[in-house]
Structures are given as C-alpha cells and as structure tokens.
Amino acid sequence: MKRIRSASAWKRTAGAVMALGLIAGACSSDDGGDGGDAGGGGGDSVVSDDTTADAPDETTADAPDDTVEVVQSSGGRLASVQSADVVNCGGNDGLAGFGIIDADGNFSGFDIDFCKVIAAAVLGDAEKVNITPLVAAQRFEALKGGEIDVLIRNTTWTASRDGAEKANFLQTTFFDGQGFMVRADSGINTLADMANTTVCVLTGTTTLLNLNAVLGDQGIPFTALEFEDNAELQPAFVAEQCEVWTSDASQLASFAEGLDVETSILPDIISKEPLGPVVADGDTEWAQVVNWAVMATIQAEEFGITSENIDSFNDSGDSGIRRFLGLPIDDGDGNEIIAEVGLGLPTDFASNIIRQVGNYGEIYERNLAPLSLSRGPNALWTDGGLMYVPPFR
Amino acid sequence: MTDTPKTAGEGVYLGTDITLALAARDEAPLHSDTTPGKWVKDNLFNSVMNSIITVVLGVAVIFLLTRAAQWVISEEWRIIQVNLRNFMVGQFPRDELWRLWWSAYVLIVGIGGGVGALAHNAEDDAREKGLEYKRSSWLDLLRRFWPVLAFVALMTSFARTWLPYVGVLVALALVVAARTAGWAMPAPVRARAVQFMAVAIVVSTVILAGTSGLVAIVAGLVAYFAVASETSRRFEGSDARSTLLRQLAPIVVGVAVWFVLDAVAVDGFGWEDWGGLHLTLFATVVGISTGMPLGILLAVGRRSELPVIKGFCVLFIEFVRGVPLISLLLFSSFILPLLFPLSVAVPETLTRAMIVITLFSAAYIAEIVRGGLQAVPQGQTEAAQASGMSAAKIQRLIVMPQALRAVIPAMVGQFISLLKDTSLIATIGVAEFFQYSAISNAQPEFLGKEKQIVTYSIVAIGYWAFAYTMSKESRRLEAQLGVGER
C-alpha cells in the first residue's frame, strides 16, 4: 500500500513538471508568433503583445523592470564593442537585397552594409563585423540578452516594440509599405477594382490584418488565400489561383523581377513599414553612435560625397563638408582645428564610412537596385523623399 | 506455398507439410536456369489480369522515367553550381577550405587504417577459434556505400573548378591505401587500432577547429586512455614500479597533452562557422555518439530500484519525449540565455542546440534500450548472479550485449530520424543543409525563379543517401550478429 502511494506521488511530480514544460513550450511559441517577419509584412500580432503586457500585472510589477535594469546596467556597449574590436549584428540570412548568404558564403545586403557602416565608424574597419543570422522570433531576445550589439534585420518600427520589447529604434534606413501586385493584363488599377477577387497573402503577419482592415473598411469583398512565405505564394500567383498578391512593396518588386509574367504594382500603399537599426533600451551613448553612423551615409549623399570622389573633397572650401569629414577647419581665430562632436566616435568616422562602405545612395544602388526597387520614399528630402537627417555640427 | 494440393484426411501432420515446404525451398537453386523470356512469361504475363497490370504499370513507369529524364536534361542547375559550397560546408571561410579537406583526409586515414586493422584482427580471432570468417572485398564496400559515393559523385559533378574532383579522388585513393595499409600492419600495431583511430579523430578536429577550449580537453582525455591502455599492456606486474607507472603515466601524459595543446593554441574555426551538409552530419554524429551512452545510462537508471535515480530517469525521459524537438530547440534559443547569470558567457546558439539534440536522442534511445533490456530473460541475470558476477559485470557482459543486439533496427531507425531532425536547427537561425535550399532560392539571382524543385531534389537525395546507407549498414550488422535467426 505504501509503495503504491509513493508511486502516485512520483506520478504527481512528473505531472507537475510536464505541465511546467507545456507552459514553457507555450511561452516560446508565443515568442514565435510575436513579431512576425517584417520582410513578409512586419508587425506584431496584437494577441501576443497583450500577453507580454499583461504578464507583469499578474506577478509583481517590479520584477520585469529589475531584470531590464540589470541587463541595461551592463551598459558601456561602445566600450565593450571597442575592446572586442568587432561589432555583433543580428541579421537575416535569407532576404534578397537586405540580408542573405551569397554564393561565396558571405553575408551581403542592404542591412548587412549598415552593420559594416557601424563597424567602419566605431572601429575604423568595415570588415570587423560578426553577423548572427536570426529568425524573426529570436531578434528581440538576442538584443535583450546582449548577444548582439545592434539588430539590423528588416525590422519594422512600431510602438509596442519600442515599448514592450524594450527595443530602441533608430534612424529608418528603408521606408517600406504594404502594396499590391497584379498581372499587367488583369485590368485592376485601384483598390476598388479588387472587388470579388482572390488575394494571395502571408499568414500570421500584419499583412493579413492590414488587408482585412483596409479592404473591410472600404467594403470591398475579397477572398484571402494564405501562404507561409512568399516563395510558396509565388507559384499560386503564377498559376492564377489569385489575381492579387499583397506583401511589402519591396518584396513584390523583387519577386516581380524573377517572374515570367508581366505584372504591375498598384500605387496604393496601405501600411507604413519603416525599417532600420535597433539597439537595446538603456544605453543612450551606444544608440547615438549607431544613429549618427547610419545618418552619416545619408548626409554624405546629400553632400554628394561618394566612395569614388571623397578624395576630391580634401580641399573643399565648404566648412560643413570639412567638419563632416573630420578635416581641419578654421575656428574663427585663424587656428586650424578638427571638430570634435563628442559622440565617442573618431573625428574621421564619416570619412571611414564613405571610403569603406559608401554613401546611402551607393548602398542602395549596390543592394536594392538589382531587385529593381526604385528609390520612392527613400529618396533624399531634397528629391522629394523622406531621407532627412539633422545637421552634423 | 507448395504446389502439391492438400487433401484432408491423409493422416499427415500439418507441421510436416511446412517442414517439407521449407526443405524444398532450401534445396531450390538460388538462380534458376530459366531463360529471360521464360521468366517474363512465368512472372509477368502468366494470366490475363497480370498481363494487363504489367502493361499498365510498365507504361506508367516508362512515362515517369521519361518525364524525369526530360526534366533533368532541360532543368537549369546553375543554382546548385553557384551554391555548391554553401550546400556542402555553409559559410566556412572560402580561403580556409583546405582545413576541411585535410581534416577529412586525416579522418579517412585514421578510420580507414583502423577499420582495416580491426578486420584483420577479427579474421585472426576467428581463425584462432576455428570459426568461419568471410573476408569483405572492395566490391562489398562499394555495395555497402554506393548511395553515399553516388551522392558525392553527383555533388562533385556540379563543381566548376577541378579542385573538388582532385580532392574527392585523393580521398578515395586514401580510403583504399589506408585500409590496405591497416590490414598489412604487424599484429602488435593492429592491436592499437582503436587508439590510432581516436588520435586521428582528434588530429582531424584540431586541423579544423584549432585547440580552443573543448578540443584540448578531449585531446587530453584521448591521450589519457591511449596511454592507459598502453601502460596496462606493458607493465603488467604488481610491483610498486609497475603500478606507479600504470597509474601515473596516463595522467601525466594526458594533462601534458591538454596543457601543451592549450598553450600552443592552434587557430581554427569552431562549429559556429560551420554549416551545410558538414554541419548536418556533424550534428548527427554528435547526437548519436553522445546520446547513445547517455540513453543506455537512462535506460538502466529507469530499471533501477533506487527511487531517486528511477524517478529522475522517468521524469527526464517522459518530459523530453513528450515535447516536440522544435519546442526544445526554441527553448534553448530563447529561454536558456535568460537563465544564465550575467557574469557567465551564454554558449553559442549552436552549442545549445547540440545539447538539446543530444538530450533528445538520449531520451528516445533510452526507451529503445529499455525495450531490449526487457527482452533479455530474467534467467540470464540469475545465472550470472549464481556464478558470482558483480552487478556491473552482469550488465556489461551479459545483459547489455543481448539487449542492444535485439534493438538494432529500432536504434538505427532513431539514428535516421535524428539525421533528418537536425534540419530543425534551421528554425533557430542555424544554416544547415536543408536551410540552404531556402537561402539559395532567396538570393537575388534566383529569387522568383522557382528553383525550389531543384534545390529540394538535391537536398532530398543527400538525406536519402546517408539515411539509406545507415539502414543498409544496420541490416548488415543484424545479419552479422544473427539477429532474427535465433
């Protein structure tokens, strides 16, 4: 009798541990759902955000704050990057144009180049980068855990990520938005033409939520055909299982290039997807360093400085350009001084960035032009785009 | 089934009928002397129904084969050519590829030589005991490993330089040379085949990954065991000097090797730089070779009469088996780093994944082994106890060999699913063999070109080649050990 009781005690314990395991599994799958993939539409699912927000209320309100403080007080990220002599970036290994492993086994892409920009600015060598490929669900955990110094992985800037995810979004490097692609001969030119059509869309991302919201608000009836990723969706679109393909405009443009059928992308953009570098909350010094390094590429394009012509600016008379490039300037008393802006960056950081990686336009040309992505909203403000940075002085 | 019609009431035992049938089968020649034409007529067109089935299936097979051949010829294989290195070794630095080749060569020499020596030892052993021993020929090796060889040939054919051809040919030549040399070694050298293999594995790892951290420790351990077996062979006496040498020398040499390797600090590329098929195979080998001993311990522990040990083993096995591998991997990737104190460096994602894979396969292997343990009759243990063997010896010499022999098919089945399960590490951002299919299709050059069918075919052939070889080897092992015949 006694023995039977002890056996059932063991069973109870086992049951409790397995229940714990299930909870752990559930939590991790919450994280998995959390955040989707910005490349395929970005955005958090509302449900998982609520879970994260509610959790602290149920337990003690202080606990999560404490944890965050401990993580953040490790601070001094700039110093640790300098002593490690390498910038650890979280990136994507499978998104054409933004972050991908190329045939030589190297990471390349728009986001990867911005990681190199940071390395060139902080360490003076664009090659001193270590890219950790992350899946969408891992990215904020990696940032919070300090595994990576900066996250540049086609990540959409949203309020909940700035807030609940304890992330700090910096200068947007690419303004994306959800668009619609149709066959050129489909006769669909506006959203209203999409009435009673079938729309191919990615499941589990904000793309579907946006689609339902926008078309629902306008009272346009449609059928959604859902897919896990764009590579699976493409054959369905080609086989005319759906008339419309909705995804991030950048994705649509890059897939359109490889298709055998003539397509056109509607002018309607129904969401805002600003993508840019992200650092962990709480280290302002490091955030500023990353931010100004990234903004230097945009300022360089505005000045017209490229990796090709940068040497011709050595004799420039423009004090703005001289200050930007870390060249000696007249301090007004006839003394030649080199401006020090006090960001913790070398005075010639902009010059290093431009020489080793290039200005924003060059980075764009190198990575995104082959996917036939036009500059659109990513043009300089002087050309009617959104790329506008504060002055370097 | 026999052709003789059975008539009731003939007074013959049914059992005799079966015995006779079996005897007839045994006496029937393996290759009958029928002509091909007669064989076809007898087997494919022996009735109207069978003729129709033959024709229909034949047309279907020919149609499918033609379509497949057409596809192979017309398909653009550039995506594999361009990404060949990615599929094979992932992001391993391209100007350091010599490390992979040389570590493979050393491994081939070590394993090939060791296997040759062990085969010769086995033959000597069999002859000494007056048993029959079937020497395996080169043709046997080809028959055993043709799927892997065919896959290597297929992948090499995608190479755009001559270097991989040379590398593969050198490797094949080394296999032949090493096995022949191993066989030809004098008996005292052959007796040390296992140590030789262990040292070769360590050297191969050092060439590839350098001596950072774990490698130096493992090298020290290997040195310890190698020297221990050497000294126990040389100094058998029970005098003080022999005992001292036996016990001290391995420790001194082991520690020396560890420290020297650690101090020399050969540089290399650890597994965070590995990828592709190389990583897939490595993860499988690690999962098998560390999961199996752990699994055996867990199985024995589960049958233990000590409640704490038994309880722990049951909890562990049932927890791990009750959770999908993918959720354990996600746990290792997301939750585990948060549990580490800040002062302790969190291990690499891949290291954590390897630990999870090992524990996962250990739990499954434990249950398989337990099944084998239950198949061993209690009388075996009792007989061994009666003859005065210790509990550990009973397990090691009586129970475990019989238990493991009985579960080879299930065990190899587990190994094969482990090989395929390693593709799940892609979900935590580690680019292994399978993942490169998605990556190469997302490259700007191939985006939207629908080359998934090409890459997935190659990946499937790769997994199949290794899984099928494992399965063949397991059947060969079963035949050798006579599983299912007793």
| CATH C-level of the largest domain in chain A | Alpha Beta
| Biggest pleated sheet of chain B | none
C-alpha termini separation of chain B: 23 Å
The portion of residues assigned to helices of chain A is: 40-55%
Please tell me the total number of domains of chain A.
2
Largest interchain contact: A-B, 51 and 50 residues
- Strand count of chain A: 17
| CATH topology assignment of the largest domain in chain A | D-Maltodextrin-Binding Protein, domain 2
| Main beta-sheet annotation of chain A | 5 strands, mixed
What does this structure look like?
The complex is a heterodimer of chains A (393) and B (486). In chain A, 42% of the residues lie in helices and 16% in strands. By secondary structure, chain A is of the alpha/beta class. Chain A has a five-stranded mixed sheet. Chain A has a three-stranded parallel sheet with strand order 5-1-6. Chain A is elongated, with a radius of gyration of 24 Å. The N and C termini of chain A lie far apart (84 Å). Chain B is built from 22 helices and no strands. Chain B is an all-alpha fold and 486 residues long. In chain B, helix 17 runs antiparallel to helix 20. Among the domains of chain B are: 61 residues, no CATH class; 204 residues, MetI-like fold, CATH 1.10.3720. In chain B, 30% of the residues are buried. The N terminus of chain B is likely disordered. At the A-B interface, helix 1, strand 2, helix 9 and helix 10 of A face helix 5, helix 14, helix 15 and helix 21 of B.
